[in-house]
Amino acid sequence: MINACRLGSPSGLGGVSCAQAKELNFGFISTESSANLKTAWQPLLEDMSKATGITIKAFFAPDYAGVIEGMRFNKVQVAWMGNKSAMEAVDRAGGEVFAKVVGKDGEEGYFSLLVVHKDSPLKSLDDVLKNRAGLTLGFGDPNSTSGTAVPGLYAFAQNKVDPVKDFKRTVRSNHETNLLAVVNKQVDVATNNTENTQRFEKTHPEQSKQVREIWRSPLIPSDPIVWRKDLDDASKAKVRDFMLAYGKTEREQAILQNIGYSAFRASANLQLVPIRQIELARERTKIENDAAMAADERAKKLADIDARLAELSKQLVSAK
Description:
Oligomer: single chain
Order of helices and strands: EHEHEHEEHEHEHEHEEHHEHH
Mean pLDDT: 91
C-alpha cells in the first residue's frame, strides 16, 4: 500500500526508486461522531482520489491519540488535526504540518469556549470559578487544543484552578458529546470552540438553541493538516497541490462550507509555536504552585522552561 521511502533520500529501502503511493489513509481527530465526519469530508476525499490518482481512505479513531498513534505506526499518512494533537504528531509520530484550514469567514483561527445550558445561572467564567466545587465540568480530549490546552491555561491555570481536581466532577468527551451533555444538563459547563458550535448548529439545529457561551479565549491558530515526513515526494506534491487549490469552483466551495471551511492554505510546523508556549506556560504555573518541590529543583525546572520559551519567541521573531 505505502512505499517505504527514507526521509530525505531519493530512493527507498534497498536502493529501490521511491514510487508514488497507491493508497493513503487520511486521519480525522474525533471532534464529533465518525458518521458525521465521514458525511462531511467524504466528497472532498473522493475528489482528492480522482485528482491525485491515489486512493484516499478515511481513518477514524475513538480519540485523538488514536490518530496520532496511527500516524506513528504508518496507519495514517495524512491527517486533519488540532494544533495540540499536531504538536504530538510532530514530536513523536514523524509528522509535519504542511497546510491549515481557513474558516468560512476567511479567518485563519478560532476560539475556545466555555458553554452552559441557556437556562443556567452561570453567566461568566468568574461564576464558574467561584462555584466550581459544586459543578460538573465537561472537559475535552487530553490532546484537544480548544477542549483542554487553551482553556486549561487561560480559563483555569491562570486563575490557579485545576480543572481535573477542583470541580465536583470532571468528564472528558469530544466536542459534540460535550455540547449534547450541556443540552441535556448532564454537565453544568463544558469546553468547546467556535468551529464546533457552528457545526452543531448545522447538525443539531434545535438543540443548539439550548447552548449559551459564557467565555471566549484568545484566538487559536486554525487547524493544521499534517503528513508523515517520510511520505514520498510525488505523493506529497499531489496532495499539497490538490488541497491548496481546492475550493475554486462553486461545487467545491459548497463541500468546504459543509465541513465548516472556505479553503486550505500552506503552513508549517512554526504554526505550532503558540501552542507550545501555552503548554510550557501551563507547566510553569504548575511547578510554581508545587509546594512539595524543593526550591533548588523548582528553580532549575523554571530556568529550563524559561529558556525553552525564549527559544520559541526567537523562532517567531525570525519568521517575521
